[in-house]
Write a structure and sequence with these properties.
Blueprint: E1 11-15, H1 22-36, E2 42-45, H2 53-61, E3 66-71, H3 73-83, E4 89-94, H4 100-104, H5 112-121, E5 123-135, E6 141-146, E7 149-153, H6 154-161, H7 164-170, H8 174-182, E8 189-195, E9 201-205, E10 207-211, E11 215-216, E12 220-221, E13 233-238, H9 242-257, H10 264-270, E14 279-284, E15 286-299, E16 302-323
Parallel strand pairs: 1-2, 1-3, 3-4
Antiparallel strand pairs: 5-6, 5-16, 7-10, 7-15, 8-9, 8-15, 10-13, 11-12, 13-14, 15-16
Helix pairs in contact: 1-5, 2-3, 6-8
Cofactor: Mg(2+)
InterPro entries: ATP-NAD_kinase_N, Diacylglycerol_kinase_cat_dom, Lipid_Phosphate_FormReg, NAD/diacylglycerol_kinase_sf, YegS/DAGK_C
Domain DAGKc: 6-136
Amino acid sequence: MSPAAPSHRRAAIIYNPLKVDKAKLRSSVATAEKAAGWDKSLWFETTAEEAGGGLAKKAAAEKVEVVLAAGGDGTVRAVAEGLRDTKVALALLPAGTGNLLARNLDLPLSDLDSSVQAAFTGEDRDIDLGLVEIERPDGATEQHAFVVMAGIGLDAKMVANTNPELKKRVGWLAYADAIARSLRDAKQLRISFRADDGAARTMRAHTVLVGNCGLLPGNVLLLPDASLDDGVLDIVALRPEGFFGWAQVWVKIVWENGVLRRSSVGRKMMGYTREIRTLRYLKASTFEVRLDRAEEFELDGDEFGVVVGFRTEVDAGALTVRVPAA
C-alpha cells in the first residue's frame, strides 16, 4: 500500500560525503522531488563523530515522510537506529562495499536515479530491527541497533583486518585478504549462551553470528531461513576443525545454501544430505552470550571494538523501509 499523500510532503537526505557524488545526488533528488510534487528536501551530511543516527532523529522531528540514506552499511545502520519506531520510512541509496540491507531487500545497487525515484514514489514495508547490548572488558555497556547481523570471532576479526585502501579498490573482494590474515589466529572461543528462556549452555566456535537477514556479497546465503519480518533472529555458530571442517562449511554455505536451495530440484537433492556438526543453527527472539576472553565484535560489517559479552533481541516491525512500488 502506498503512503498517504499529505498536502506538503518532504524528504530528508542523509549522506556520507566520502561515499557519494554530492552534485550527482543533488541533481537526482531535485528531479525526483519536482516530478513527485514534493517540497524541497532537507540535507544532512554525516561526519566522523555523527554517523547518521542523530541526524535521522532531527529529520524525523522535522516531520519528513522519508529519509534517504546515501552511504555504506555503517550509514544505513546508524540512520535505521535513529528512525526506530518513528514510522518515518528509510529509503536506501546504496553507495558502499557490501550494501547488505539493499541486497536482502533485492533493491538495485548501482542505479542512483531509480533508487531516488523509488524513495518518492515507492511503497512502505515494516521490517524487524536487531537490538544489542554489548559489554566491554571494563564493564561498560552500550546499546545499538543492527539491520543485518552482529558477530564475534573470525567474522569480526575479518572486518577488523580488512585493509581500507584495498577495500576502496576492489570492493568486497578485499575480505578474502582479511580472511586469510584472520585465519592465522583462528583459536576457537569458549562461549556460554542462552536462547530465549532456555537453560544456559556452552560450546566452542570460531564465529557466532546473529542475523536479521542472511544474504551476503557474492551471493553467499549464510542464514538460509532468515527473514526481515519474521519476528525472530537467526543464529549460526561456525565450528570447523582443520581443513576438512572448513571445506564442509564452504560446501554447505556456497553450494547447498547458495545453489541447491534456490531451485525445487536442488531442494529435493538437499533432502539426501545430512546436517554437519561444523555449523549450528538456532532461532530466538533473545540471545545472550558470555565469552571466556575479550573478542572483536562487528555490527553490519563495521568493527565495534572488543567485548566480553552481548545480548541481542528482535524489535519486530520497528523499521519502515521504502521499496519500489509493485
